[in-house]
Each structure stands twice: as C-alpha cells, then as structure tokens.
Write a structure and sequence with these properties.
This protein has 224 residues and is an alpha+beta fold. It has one domain: Glutaredoxin (3-Layer(aba) Sandwich). 53% of the residues lie in helices and 10% in strands. It contains ten helices and four strands; from the N terminus they run ααββαβααααααβα. Helix 3 links the parallel strand 2 and strand 3. Helix 4 packs across helix 8. The longest helix has 25 residues. Keywords: Disulfide bond, Oxidoreductase, Redox-active center, Signal. Belongs to the thioredoxin family. DsbA subfamily.
Length: 224
C-alpha cells in the first residue's frame, strides 16, 4: 500500500467518524443545545394542555391571556444562563401583557441539573421559586458543568434565602418533587424538545437567534 493511499484512507476514516458522531448527537433527545434549538421547528401548534399544566410555574401573568411564552430549561445549561437576562428583560418590558411560564428540562448528563430543579421546586413550596431560580443562574459558573454533587451548595442557597430548612429538606428529598420535575421533562420530550433552552410562543416554536427575533415573535402574536 502506497503512502498516499494510506493517508487517503485515514482521512476517509476520520470523516466517517465525524459524520457518525454528528448523526448520533442529532438522534439523542437529551442533547443540550443553545437558543437556536428552536430553529428547526415546524409550524405545528403544541397541545395547550401539555404545554402548560395547571401546576406549571408562571413567572409573569397577562390578564388577557393572549400571549404565552413557555421555556423548557436546564438550570445547569450555559445557554439557558445566557438567555436568562434576555427573558428577565422581556418579562419587564411585557409585564401585564405576556405570560411567561417556566418548565424544567434537566439534561441527564448534567450532574446537578435535576438536583437544582428539585431545589427550586422545594423553594417554590415556600413562595421562593423566583428567588431560587434567579440564584441558580446568577451562581451557575461556580457549580455548573462539574461531576461532583453540589447538594451542599444548594442547601446554602436555601439558607441564604431564609427558608425553613426542615421543610426545605423534606420537600427537596420528597419523591413527589422528583416526580414533578420529571413530569415537566417528559412533557418536553412529548413536545419534541431536544435541547435547552427551547421556547414556545402561543404553542409554536419560532426561530429565535437574537433578542430582536424574540421580541418580533411576541409582537406578532400581540398584533393578532
């Protein structure tokens, strides 16, 4: 075998390996993606009773209920953290006109994502969902993307927020809390969510590449 032929075969093998890896990643329903996760969505409207459950967390509520933004998020996802200030800004800008709903979608490969979601849920039982949700993103760089448990870190957050620690511990470790988080994740999978953050606006998944795209999609629904 000539030297050139060996090099050519090696290059072909590398290309095939890369293609196989990409195809495998695209088949993985729990693969984390960035805000462009919405880019491949079609125009099909998601079932309203699955998209927003009676117990889904509404961060902001519009009285007329005309426009609802739903985000499936992973508290350990860096792209979700990057989207967080944009969502907070839009909540302020559209206060009273747009409902914003938060739903959990912890990625299994993220060591602390599900634990963080349960901590937020346990804080919600004491009226501190938003405070804990914000704290998770504000501190994510210190605990995210690590393969060690940050249970102690999250317990510290609960103490900082002044929660009843006995109740927090009980709710945090309650199987019902884990079931609540998993229910959100399963709904996301049923709706075709493949990565985080994934946004739905009035049941549709618009192509969102920037804050301008996000606002345009909301404005289009408000104008109807």
């Amino acid at each position: 075998m000539t030297k050139n032929l060996k090099i050519s075969l090696a290059l072909v093998a590398v290309v095939l390996a890369v293609v196989a890896a990409l195809l495998a990643a695209n088949r993985t329903p729990d693969a984390t993606s960035d805000a462009s996760a919405n880019a491949g969505a079609d125009a099909e409207v998601a079932p309203a009773d699955v998209l927003v459950r009676k117990d889904s967390h509404r961060l902001s509520t519009a009285k007329d209920g005309k426009v609802t933004v739903v985000e499936f998020l992973d508290l350990e996802c860096e792209s979700c953290r990057a989207a967080f200030p944009v969502v907070e800004q839009l909540r302020k800008e559209y206060e009273g006109r747009v409902t914003f709903v938060m739903r959990y979608f912890p990625i299994p490969s993220h060591r602390n994502a599900e634990l963080a979601a349960r901590a937020v849920e346990a804080a919600a039982a004491q009226g501190k969902l938003e405070a804990m949700y914000q704290k998770m993103y504000e501190t994510q760089e210190s605990w995210g993307d690590q393969q060690v448990s940050h249970e102690k870190t999250f317990r510290g957050f609960a103490e900082e927020l002044g929660l009843d620690m006995k109740k927090f511990e009980a709710d945090w470790k309650d199987p019902a809390t884990a079931k609540r988080v998993e229910k959100d994740r399963k709904d996301g999978l049923a709706l075709g969510v493949q990565g985080t953050p994934t946004f739905f606006i009035n049941g549709q998944r618009p192509q969102i590449q920037s804050e301008a795209d996000f606002k345009a999609a909301i404005e289009a629904e408000l104008a109807k």
